[in-house]
Input
Amino acid sequence: MNGEKVINMNAGTKIDYEIMGNKIIFNDELMLNLEKYERDDPMHIDICMDEFGCLCMGLAHNYVAQIDIPAREYQYVEDGVDEEGHTKYNKVAVPFDIKKVVITLWEVEE
Output
């Protein structure tokens, strides 16, 4: 773990996952670059297993994980002054922080 928050929703065996930088890899099968899913609104991603045991995003046979990415944050950075002498600011996105992501794990049905 890289400091991300993990919630075990129920008892039982959970899916294997690995965090590498901003990427999460489930069962060495499904990889998501979580930074690419960050938006101005919170993002929720469902990871499910279909009836054949294959992982997919979205709803399928049963949940194995849910990923919640908080809304992108911004800061205002000074950018000189305007013609009237007022300070100008630029809105700049704060870099993605995997530590703010919440991963909820569900029991893997076998």
